[in-house]
């Protein structure tokens, strides 16, 4: 670069010394959050980096460079932790983005429970020791219609625990068409091995008959397991026995029928699906002895695994020593209880639980919000269109069910400071809050179904800052 050397020296000299930075709001916030010593150390490194950039001919805005570099290291208020993300993917239960957002009721319950003490394991009537699950047990029982229920850390833990308690050292029969792998290392054969139960596979990938199960039952058999094939569908020449027939067979031969239904809708009403996931109500109706499902999929609550079923089976599960290792904390119980209470009335659930609110939002409403967002972005110089798009429940729920949606689509010509769609996606991902959308046909898709109305302002700011900070963020990163 053909720069004037005196201008270059002057820019270097103009950088204030470390002590002068401590009153800058972004830096002062950092001192408040992580202490002076760590902030000063980070500042020295950042200012060294800044001088390097200037020496090689870059001309970043000094104050912005420092603020961006601090934010990059520590987040906006000094605490890096998990970063807030605006989910513009249209995937409602995105496992990478934390699955179900919680309802206001759940958040209030967490706050109230966490800020002080609570009756987690103390029965306030008798003064005796109580059980932590009791706070949600009655609600679970009345909503599912099962005789009994308990809660553990997630559905993977629920499955291990149920198999161990019901069948350790004995055989569990499963169809070869249901030996699933769910994202993040949940593979049924491995889960089975960990539990100590012995996997007995029957049938083939595409066809398994009731007679295959019948023929496999022997003196070592303890249970029949049905696993919902959450994240795939076997199509074409296929056959699986109905769950009701499996339950009947199990009971006729003195076995336990375990039903891993996965996503855990308590009932099917209002689900947009043609081929909906098995519901808890259906599983109870066919007489499953143990029903396993997640709390943070279609239920719309916190991460946890729910085990519902007969009193005898649930008691056996709760008596297992592993229950202690897989138990949930008070915050999960608070959030789960509040989420469940919204399920008594579908209209309340659809208003109050974010997943159901997102699923239920009308196309008119999405179209209107997309129009508003597009108008704002067009004013800021973006080439923008509103297009129809397809959202998905995600999290292995309703895998082949497209949910009609609307997206705001950004494409070239790009404003100054953005070179390509992949650069735009990267910058949005690295912002604070981060924005994660979909790159498709050389354009950036912002699906409105997963962007809450209250997040649109932040989203507009995030997109605007990609252009403003175009050069500085590059330098700071
Ligand atoms: C999602 C899922 C699991 C795993 O549940 P986590 O709560 O993520 O542990 C297990 N089985 C089925 C059928 C699932 O859909």
Could you walk me through the main structural features you see in this protein, from its secondary elements to its overall organization?
The radius of gyration is 27 Å and the shape is elongated. The protein is α/β, with parallel strands linked by helices. α6 packs antiparallel against α15 and α7 packs parallel to α15. The C terminus is likely disordered. It folds into three domains: 74 residues, no CATH class; 127 residues, Aspartate Aminotransferase, domain 1 (Alpha-Beta Complex); 186 residues, 3-Layer(aba) Sandwich (Aspartate Aminotransferase, domain 2). It has a seven-stranded mixed β-sheet, with helices on both faces. Strands 11-12-15-14 form a four-stranded antiparallel β-sheet. The chain is built from 21 helices and 15 strands.
Descriptors for this entry?
single chain, 477 residues, alpha/beta, Aspartate Aminotransferase, domain 1, seven-stranded mixed sheet, four-stranded antiparallel sheet, 15 strands, 16% strand
Layout of secondary structure:
Blueprint: H1 5-13, H2 18-21, H3 25-34, H4 36-55, H5 62-74, E1 85-87, H6 104-115, H7 134-144, E2 148-152, H8 155-167, E3 171-175, E4 181-182, E5 186-187, H9 188-195, E6 198-202, H10 210-216, E7 221-227, H11 243-252, E8 256-262, H12 280-285, E9 290-294, E10 305-309, H13 311-319, H14 322-325, H15 330-341, H16 346-352, H17 354-360, H18 363-379, E11 383-391, E12 403-411, H19 421-430, E13 434-436, E14 438-440, E15 443-447, H20 456-468, H21 470-476
Parallel strand pairs: 1-13, 3-6, 3-7, 7-8, 8-9
Antiparallel strand pairs: 2-10, 4-5, 9-10, 11-12, 12-15, 14-15
Helix pairs in contact: 3-4, 4-5, 5-21, 6-15, 7-15, 8-9, 8-13, 16-17
Pyridoxal-5'-phosphate (PLP) binds at residues 154-156, 182, 186, 227-228, 230, 260, 262-263, 294, 305, 396.
């Amino acid at each position: 670069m053909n720069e004037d050397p005196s201008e270059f020296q002057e820019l270097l000299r103009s950088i204030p010394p470390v002590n002068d930075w401590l009153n800058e709001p972004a830096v002062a916030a950092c001192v408040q959050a992580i202490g002076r010593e760590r902030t000063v150390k980070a500042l020295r490194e950042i200012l060294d980096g800044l001088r390097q950039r200037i020496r090689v001919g870059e001309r970043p805005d000094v104050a912005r460079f420092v603020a961006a570099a601090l934010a990059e290291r520590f987040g906006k208020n000094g605490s890096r932790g998990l970063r807030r993300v605006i989910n513009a993917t249209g995937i409602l239960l995105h496992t990478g983005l934390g699955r179900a957002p919680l309802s206001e009721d759940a958040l209030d319950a967490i706050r109230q429970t966490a800020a002080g003490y609570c009756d987690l394991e103390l029965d306030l009537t008798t003064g005796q020791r109580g059980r932590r699950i009791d706070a949600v047990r009655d609600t679970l029982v009345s909503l599912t219609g099962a005789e009994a229920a308990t809660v553990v850390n997630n559905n993977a833990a629920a499955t291990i625990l149920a198999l161990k308690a019901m069948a350790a050292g004995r055989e569990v029969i499963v169809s070869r068409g249901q030996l699933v792998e769910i994202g993040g290392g949940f593979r049924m054969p491995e889960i089975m091995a960990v539990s100590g139960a012995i996997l007995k596979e029957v049938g083939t990938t595409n066809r398994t008959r009731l007679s295959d199960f019948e023929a496999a039952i022997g003196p070592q058999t303890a249970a029949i397991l049905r696993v919902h094939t959450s994240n795939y569908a076997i199509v074409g020449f296929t056959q699986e026995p109905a769950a009701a027939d499996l339950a009947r067979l199990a009971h006729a031969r003195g076995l336990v029928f375990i039903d891993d239904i996965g996503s855990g809708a308590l009932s099917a009403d209002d689900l947009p699906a043609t081929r909906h996931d098995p519901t808890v109500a259906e599983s109870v109706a066919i007489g499953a002895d143990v029903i396993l499902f997640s709390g943070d999929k279609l239920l719309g609550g916190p991460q946890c695994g729910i085990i519902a079923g007969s009193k005898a089976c649930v008691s056996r599960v709760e008596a297992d020593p592993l229950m202690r290792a897989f138990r949930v904390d008070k915050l999960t119980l608070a959030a789960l209880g509040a989420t469940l209470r919204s399920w008594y009335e579908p209209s309340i659930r659809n208003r109050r639980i974010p997943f159901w609110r997102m699923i239920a939002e009308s196309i008119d409403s999405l179209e209107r919000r997309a129009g508003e967002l597009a108008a704002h972005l067009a004013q800021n110089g973006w080439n923008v269109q509103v297009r129809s798009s397809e959202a998905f429940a995600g999290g292995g729920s309703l895998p082949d069910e497209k949910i009609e949606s609307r997206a705001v689509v950004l494409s070239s010509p790009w404003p100054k400071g953005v070179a390509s769609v992949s650069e735009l996606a990267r910058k949005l991902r690295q912002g604070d809050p981060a924005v994660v959308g979909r790159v498709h046909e050389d354009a950036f898709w912002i699906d409105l179904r997963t962007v809450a109305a209250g997040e649109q302002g932040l989203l507009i700011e995030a997109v605007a800052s990609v252009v403003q900070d175009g050069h500085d963020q590059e330098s700071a990163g």
